[in-house]
Write a sequence for this structure.
């Protein structure tokens, strides 16, 4: 019976090509706009490390200005980044399973091939735990070992893109690369790794690519590199004086820990307050109860990675979809009522109301499916346009989940749109129409 | 015009007209709110920068290696840039206004205790004597830097002898409209600089910052591997000169990497990208929405005309003119659109209220509503014109036929 209904639906769609095309177009445009906005929102609000969301924490301690909070509108939060002295002190703790302090530095890469001009990149310094705690995938080699976190070793991990550019994509582990006039031994090359949003450091752009090279944070004091992130200070300091700066109240590092058990989490929290207490007693400005331990998801929320604009757009495009459906209801009503005569004949020949009802709904489902297919095409175009508008580095595409949402929305919406017209038509008394024939 | 028969016909089959009225209502609500948000964003993007923003190019360089001489490199680069055809002027400036990255610090008009909050905050840049002129700034009072005043020192947080501040910074420090030239400005460490000039207006680094026009220009060059230049070019050349400047600077030295060469317009486009995306997306949705609604009106009207062929024929046979038939459908559409528009006004304010509570957007300005009402009524009339015209062609003889 179902196949027969589909056949009827195809026939009926063909019989009224203009009206059918209008309906398909209305659904397609509605679905297209809605799915573009929803996918944008879904991608922006995605958690690229969801499987570790309950064990990873970004850490902040409040040693900020006693005269004013760091976030004027959220005084309960400590600064989003950490001072060097706090990061070094916290790094002594043995409680976390993994811990890292990390920040961006500039580095000029001079390829061995003299035909390729030197180029500058924003690299990242971190401890070896960075790669373990964020499940960073390696194509060749591995992270530097813990020794390079203790004593100076000039080793580096390269991103896939850098390895492609400098070593033509070959296994470069063991080779040397010249960064900022120093030779480094490559110990690892990453596989494709560009988490969006860039949860581990959204402060320099949440939808920017990951860094092209990584150096042990241990080398910071030896290299005295040009820092590349944002630096916020509340107490005057001469930034040019390296030692003074490192002992200053300027916040510029990101600090992350992995705490696997509730017990670790509780102990670490206590450790942080005890640390702040101690700092306050030493005469520093410190607020012992102002601690930040945020999961990646909470961190994205605090950093307002998803703008209010995106929520407004999802809401408005949902309303737009509703208008498109209202439109479809009107058109379906017109189409079904125009066929009252034919339906009456079928009813007179013994088709039950339920059968007529079902047949109309199958037709609506077909139109919905067609609208959904075209809608997907439109939202692919929409996403392409939106990617440019938002200067989004990564791929902005529907994933499996979004595809399913798109088709479910299209079919359910068009069936919902068909309910009222189908109900109207199956209630038409056949006798009246048959007489005039 | 006979509104009663139209109304009673509409009441007999309410669904179709009701659907159209609801579409018009939602369309009005969305279009009005979208236009309001769009207007606010374009106003934000259109604020005066105080600079010759369309003709400026900013350059960043980074020196490395033992043979790199920072001061000499800056001098060489600037000479080369000024010699390029199409370049009006070039100067040292260590940051890019409106780029979203920069430095800001607290300043006061008198010495302050360590726990005291500074009087105002300003976004500061190190510049040389040619920078104000290159940027296209307008001097309100005092004077610009002299070449011999520009200090060359390590670090960027020391206070130089002389600074130039914007009027907004002066207002923040010394009070609204107060004289600033000749006065001392204190940093948090109570080091001082003297104000030698006040700029009428200039925007700083962060477009979403409340103190966007609080800018402080320091007559100094900061030692270090980083160099920065602002280049002003002949009108219309900014886009094409980016590549030329990059090539030129790369030719000069291999001990220095050109980090980026970009027009100020491009920096601004990036800083405002969320706002311009909002404008484009809202306009796009509004346009589609109006189109879909218009199609809906056409569809319903065409259906109605088809359904009523016989009645129309009968009316014509009874003496109604073509104009009467046309007027019937136009009036019907106007009635439906009118109901929709009334509903839409309520819906628009409800939506604005909801947006206000959820996203703290400002309340809707009522002045956006009349043009939208007018526009939608016109569109609904135009949409029904086609089907109605076809209705006038129905022959009176139709009434005499049985089918």
């Amino acid at each position: 019976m179902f196949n027969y209904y589909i056949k009827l639906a195809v026939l009926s769609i063909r019989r009224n090509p203009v009206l059918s095309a209008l309906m398909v177009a209305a659904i397609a445009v509605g679905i297209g706009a809605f799915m573009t906005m929803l996918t944008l929102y879904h991608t922006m609000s995605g958690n690229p490390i969801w499987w570790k969301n309950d064990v990873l924490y970004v850490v902040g301690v409040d040693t900020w200005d006693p005269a004013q909070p760091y976030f004027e509108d959220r005084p309960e939060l400590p600064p989003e980044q950490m001072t060097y002295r706090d990061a070094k002190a916290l790094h002594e703790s043995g409680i976390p399973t993994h811990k890292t302090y990390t920040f961006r530095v500039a580095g000029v890469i001079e390829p061995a091939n003299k035909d390729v001009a030197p180029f500058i990149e924003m690299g990242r310094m971190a401890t070896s735990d960075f790669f373990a705690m964020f499940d960073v995938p390696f194509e060749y080699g591995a992270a530097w070992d813990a020794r390079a976190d203790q004593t100076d070793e000039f080793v580096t991990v390269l991103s896939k893109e850098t390895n492609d550019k400098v070593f033509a994509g070959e296994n470069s582990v063991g080779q040397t690369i010249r960064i900022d006039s120093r030779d480094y031994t490559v110990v690892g090359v990453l596989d494709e790794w560009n988490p969006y949003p860039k949860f581990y450091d959204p402060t320099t752009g949440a939808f920017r690519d990951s860094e092209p090279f990584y150096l042990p944070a241990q080398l910071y004091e030896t290299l005295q590199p040009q820092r590349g992130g944002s630096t916020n200070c509340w107490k005057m300091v001469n930034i040019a004086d390296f030692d003074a700066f490192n002992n200053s109240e300027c916040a510029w590092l990101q600090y992350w820990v992995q705490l696997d058990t509730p017990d670790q989490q509780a102990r670490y929290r206590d450790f942080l307050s005890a640390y702040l207490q101690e700092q306050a007693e030493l005469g520093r400005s410190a607020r012992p109860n102002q601690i930040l331990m945020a999961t990646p998801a909470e961190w994205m929320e605090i950093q307002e990675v998803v703008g209010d604009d995106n929520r407004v757009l999802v809401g408005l495009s949902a309303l737009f979809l509703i208008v498109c459906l209202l439109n479809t209801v009107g058109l379906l009503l017109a189409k079904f009522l125009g066929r009252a005569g034919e339906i009456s004949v079928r009813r007179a020949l013994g088709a039950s109301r339920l059968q007529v009802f079902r047949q109309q709904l199958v037709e609506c489902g077909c139109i919905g499916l067609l609208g959904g297919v075209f809608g997907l095409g439109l939202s692919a175009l929409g996403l392409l346009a939106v990617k440019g508008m938002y200067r989004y580095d990564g791929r902005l595409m529907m994933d499996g989940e979004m595809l399913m949402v798109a088709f479910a929305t299209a079919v359910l919406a068009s069936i919902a749109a068909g309910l009222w017209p189908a109900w109207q038509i199956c209630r038409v008394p056949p006798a009246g129409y048959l007489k005039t024939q | 015009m006979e509104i009663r028969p139209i109304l009673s016909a509409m009441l007999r089959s309410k669904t179709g007209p009701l659907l159209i009225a609801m579409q018009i209502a939602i369309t009005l609500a969305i279009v009005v709110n979208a236009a309001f948000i769009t207007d606010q964003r374009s106003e934000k993007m259109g604020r005066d920068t105080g600079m010759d923003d369309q003709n400026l190019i900013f350059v960043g360089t980074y020196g490395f290696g033992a043979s790199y001489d920072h001061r000499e490199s800056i001098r060489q680069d600037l000479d080369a840039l000024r010699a390029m055809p199409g370049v009006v002027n070039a100067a040292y400036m260590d940051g890019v206004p409106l780029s979203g990255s920069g430095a800001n610090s607290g300043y006061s008009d008198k010495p302050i205790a360590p726990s005291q909050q500074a009087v105002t905050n300003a976004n500061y840049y190190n510049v040389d004597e040619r920078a104000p002129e290159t940027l296209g700034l307008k001097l309100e009072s005092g004077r610009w830097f002299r070449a011999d005043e520009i200090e060359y020192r390590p670090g960027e947080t020391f206070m130089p002898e002389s600074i130039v501040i914007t009027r907004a910074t002066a207002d923040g420090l010394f009070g609204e409209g107060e004289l600033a030239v000749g006065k001392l400005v204190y940093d948090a460490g109570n080091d001082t600089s003297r104000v030698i000039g006040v700029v009428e207006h200039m925007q700083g680094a962060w477009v979403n910052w409340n103190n966007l026009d609080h800018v402080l220009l320091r007559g100094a060059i900061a030692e270090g591997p980083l160099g920065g230049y602002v280049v002003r070019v002949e009108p219309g050349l900014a886009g094409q000169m980016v590549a030329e400047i990059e090539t030129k600077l790369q030719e000069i030295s291999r001990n220095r990497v050109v980090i980026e060469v970009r027009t100020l317009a491009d920096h601004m486009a990036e800083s405002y990208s969320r706002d311009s995306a909002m404008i484009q997306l809202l306009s796009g949705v509004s346009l589609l929405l109006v189109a879909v609604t218009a199609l809906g009106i056409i569809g319903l009207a065409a259906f109605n005309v088809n359904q009523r062929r016989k009645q129309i024929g009968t009316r014509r046979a009874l003496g109604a003119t073509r104009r009467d038939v046309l007027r019937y459908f136009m009036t019907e559409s106007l009635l439906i659109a009118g109901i929709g528009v009334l509903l839409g006004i309520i819906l628009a304010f409800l939506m604005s209220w909801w947006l206000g509570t959820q996203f703290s957007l400002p309340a809707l300005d009522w002045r956006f509503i009349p043009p939208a009402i007018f526009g939608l009524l016109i569109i609904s009339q135009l949409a029904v014109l086609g089907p109605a015209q076809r209705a006038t062609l129905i022959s009176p003889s139709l009434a005499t036929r049985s089918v």
